[in-house]
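Hey team,

Filing this mostly as a record. A colleague (T.K.) asked me to run one chain through the structure pipeline before their review meeting, and I want the input and output archived in the tracker in case anyone asks later how it was produced. No errors, nothing strange. Just documentation.

Input sequence:
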Amino acid sequence: MSSCSRCQKMMVGALYHELVSHQQQAFDKHLATCPHCAEEYQQLLWTLNIMDRRQAPAMDPAYWEGFWDRLSDRLEPVRRKLFRPGWRRWIPPVTIPVRPAWVPVAAAVLLIATGVYIGRSIYLNQPHGPAAAARAVVFDPAVIAEFNGMLSHYLGQSRSLLLGLKNFDTEQDDPALLDFPRQQMVSWELLVQGQEIRRHAVASGDPRLQHLVGEIERVLLQLANSEGEDLEWTIRLVQEGLEQNAILVKINLTEQEQGDEVMEESESVQDVKKSALLI
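Output structure:
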């Protein structure tokens, strides 16, 4: 695996200061000797800095009253193209055309940077009160049940995929046992599902779930865009990311919380039925 390819895979982590010490040292050392990678990294850093400096205009409560309705209307045509009816029937993986190695890295950085900008400038910086209340979305029980099922499936699939990679020994285990093409296919499917999960998390005001989905997406992007000769390096990079961010622990905690919520909802329904019988 070339030094440039390794450097490009670490650019996302470097931009967000998430590399461990030896990775950061190797990254800085390569940039000092490779003008091409140094220029590419500076361009990405410049783009991220520009987005961080931009100030979002303050919107009055009247703007937020119809915000989600307008946004949903604009996203609906895109959602119909991405998703078949029902959350379990996802689109088949598409064939990705041959492209330079830096393209997926740059695309991932811009995607993540855009998400950070939106979160900082709109969702996190808006005051509490009427404006914040206007953004809240109230789901009916049917929507909540469907989302709980979708979230349970997403977390379970993500946990199984990442746990297998975490326990893989790159020095002793046979890489063929991973069935890496299938792992990449599952990664693309989970990336698509994650977009729907994130939309619900934003609408329901759940920052912890938004953050968890973002961390899972970073790992999935590394897997989905990995090339065959980079397999060993990708697995090590994923393992370090899982360990550093405790992603599997967060997934388990979220699954436990979701199970408790489902149990509480079921008990509430039973209480309502009992009350109805007593009337």
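Quick notes for T.K.: The radius of gyration is 21 Å. DSSP finds twelve helices and no strands in the chain.
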